[in-house]
Design a protein that fits this description.
Strand order of the largest sheet: 7-11-6-1-4-5-12
Family: Belongs to the ETF alpha-subunit/FixB family.
Number of strands: 17
Order of helices and strands: EEEHEHEHEHEEEEEEEHEHEHEEH
GO molecular function, one term: flavin adenine dinucleotide binding
Number of helices: 8
CATH class of the largest domain: Alpha Beta
CATH architecture of the largest domain: 3-Layer(aba) Sandwich
Shape: elongated
Pfam families: ETF, ETF_alpha
Largest sheet: 7 strands, parallel
InterPro entries: DHS-like_NAD/FAD-binding_dom, ETF_a/b_N, ETF_a/FixB, ETF_asu_C, Rossmann-like_a/b/a_fold
CATH topology of the largest domain: Rossmann fold
Strand content: 25-35%
Keywords: FAD, Flavoprotein
């Protein structure tokens, strides 16, 4: 096993996404226990500023691989080439849609398992221990891997809060060109999805609605509360299936995994598949008329009552505070 920890830094609009910086923070904490170096790897174009930012979150070295191909296969090939050069003990990625696919691409080429959606990672007695959700998130199980191959771990958003390193190093970003390789896949055309765009993974405040909102018209209250809170709108699977809001807003095991500072659940019962996607939240407020709803078991504050009565009161009170 190698003596480096590698973190792939995924970017959006040429900036590192939160979960990648969280993975970098986690890698730095683990490096203090096993005395390894943390190497941040960025792959793409126009990422000079993003690369420099990685030093602030604990990177000992930063490698920027210039690659103009957008296919995940091309990114995976570049990451494998870097792995061969540095021989890391583990490769961390953020557990995003692309991150999960990339983890499996890289692990397949390395002939090793990929551990996806890890909610916790620690290093004890010379081994990495990963806590993973299983059976649609109904249970969490701690697993390890016996072997000397490089581990591939995709870390769930919120598993470790991103932190600016107190003793952050500064250095020169190493740049190199990606090797030109034939690809089995090719992006022929990128079609913009015609739907409301939402970035749930990066949001600090999320107001989400479930089946308990009753109708598409009632769901508008969720949007109004999100607006006055300066947050974004989330939803459960039933709400998206009933077309009250586009599926891009879905939170949970089959939607987006989120970790906001504040999560307000409106008319959400608290099915395991949904709750497993919000456990990284700092503070959860739940509104439900059923006092035995499972959502209250994970909420920091629970409000028992009709959402149609409570949400308008919350909106008015927040407006008063802000005025």
């Amino acid at each position: 096993m190698g003596k480096n920890i590698m973190v792939y830094i995924e970017t959006t609009d040429n900036s590192p996404i939160n979960v990648s910086l969280e993975a970098l923070t986690l890698a730095k904490k683990i490096s203090k226990e096993n005395n390894e170096q943390v190497i941040a790897v960025l792959i793409g174009e126009n990422l000079d500023e993003a690369a420099k930012k990685c030093f602030d979150y604990g990177a000992d070295e930063v490698l920027y691989v210039e690659e103009n191909k957008k296919e995940l296969e091309a990114v995976g090939n570049a990451l494998i080439d870097v792995k061969e050069k540095y021989n890391p003990s583990v490769i961390f990625l953020g557990s995003t849609i692309n991150g999960k696919d990339l983890a499996n691409i890289v692990a397949s080429k390395m002939k090793t398992p990929a551990f996806v959606d890890a909610v916790n990672v620690k290093y004890e007695n010379g081994k990495y221990l990963m806590t993973l959700p299983m059976y649609s998130g109904n249970i969490l199980k701690e697993v390890t891997f016996d072997g000397d191959k490089t581990l591939v771990i995709a870390v769930r958003s919120g598993a470790c809060k991103k932190e600016v390193c107190e003793n952050a190093k500064s250095g020169e970003v190493k740049k190199e060109k990606a090797a030109d390789k034939n690809l089995f896949t090719k992006i022929a055309e990128i079609v913009q999805e015609i739907s409301e765009t939402v970035n749930l993974e990066e949001a600090e405040v999320i107001v989400a609605g479930g089946r308990g909102m009753g109708s598409k018209e009632n769901f508008e209250l969720v949007k109004q509360l999100a607006d006055v809170c300066g947050g974004v709108v989330g939803a459960t699977r039933p709400a998206t299936e009933d077309e009250w809001i586009p599926r891009s807003h879905q939170v949970g095991q089959s939607g987006k995994i989120v970790a906001p500072k504040l999560y307000i659940a409106c008319g959400i019962s608290g099915a395991t598949q949904h709750v497993s996607g919000i456990m990284g939240s700092n503070y959860i407020v739940a509104i439900n008329k059923d006092e035995d709803a499972p959502i209250f078991e994970v909420a920091d504050v629970g409000i028992v009552g009709n959402v149609m009565d409570i949400i308008p009161i919350m909106i008015e009170e927040i407006k008063k505070i802000k005025s």
